[in-house]
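Protein modeling request. Please complete all fields; requests missing the sequence field cannot be processed.
Requester role: graduate student
Desired output: 3D structure, token encoding
Chains: 1
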Amino acid sequence: MNRRRFLAVAGATSLAGCTAPFGPEESSRLDLTVRNDRADPITVRVEVVDAEGTTYEDGSDRIDGGVARAFEVIGGQEGRHEVTVSGDGFRGQLAWNAATCRLFDGRVRVTDDLVEVAGECVDQR
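Delivered output (125 residues):
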């Protein structure tokens, strides 16, 4: 199993445009951007698990108001993977199938009133 801690990068730039060549047996990768559009800082918890319960990421980070953070998580090679981004009073979830998607781009935007989530497979197997 290939595990890697998430990489938090300050700024609003997602790593989704940077793709490396993957083989059919390569792990899947999640490029996640979490944006805090609230005035005050938030602490987010990012958890990535697969359908069998394997945890690929479980960490937290503080994001100032008006700032985005990028997270990169290496997942497994097959099956459903789910990312949950949560904090005090909010929660957003996205999922992808690692057997058909090598690189999944996820975006979570947290405002005072709602949590917006969007995602797409940007590199299919």
